Amino acid sequence: MIYNHLDITVLVHHTMEHHQRIVGFEVEPFSIGEGPKRGANNPFDNDGVQYLEPDEQFRFSYRVISRVSS
Length: 70
Prior knowledge:
The protein has 70 residues and is mainly β.
């Protein structure tokens, strides 16, 4: 089994000067199997765990989520 998908959550804070500042991030790995829903990059809407056979090819993917930190 391989973790071939990352959900990267970027935590941002709005400053008094109306800028955004990155104050942290979280990374959560998932294993996503190949299938018709694979292109959505959503680990909660996929065809299951990606198990590997010798010499089998697989894809890595990621999803970036922005969240305002308080």
